[in-house]
Design goal:
The N and C termini lie close together (about 10 Å). The mean pLDDT is about 90. Helix 1 runs antiparallel to helix 2 (about 25-55). The protein is mostly helical. It is built from two helices and no strands.
């Protein structure tokens, strides 16, 4: 389970900005990338605090 959590960080760090960079407007792409990273970090925090202890 720990390797899955670490792999998800790696994938999110690479995939979210790549997907957001396809936007035509650079500013909007940057905003989408930052919001996606913020959403992922909040979900990751929730997973580490609530979900992971229940599984382990």
């Amino acid at each position: 389970m720990q390797s899955l959590l670490l792999t998800s960080i790696l994938v999110a760090t690479l995939a979210l900005p790549i997907v957001a960079s396809r936007d035509r407007l650079p500013r909007r792409g940057l905003r989408r990338a930052l919001l996606a990273m913020l959403a992922f970090e909040l979900f990751y925090l929730f997973a580490c605090i609530v979900i992971y202890p229940r599984i382990a």
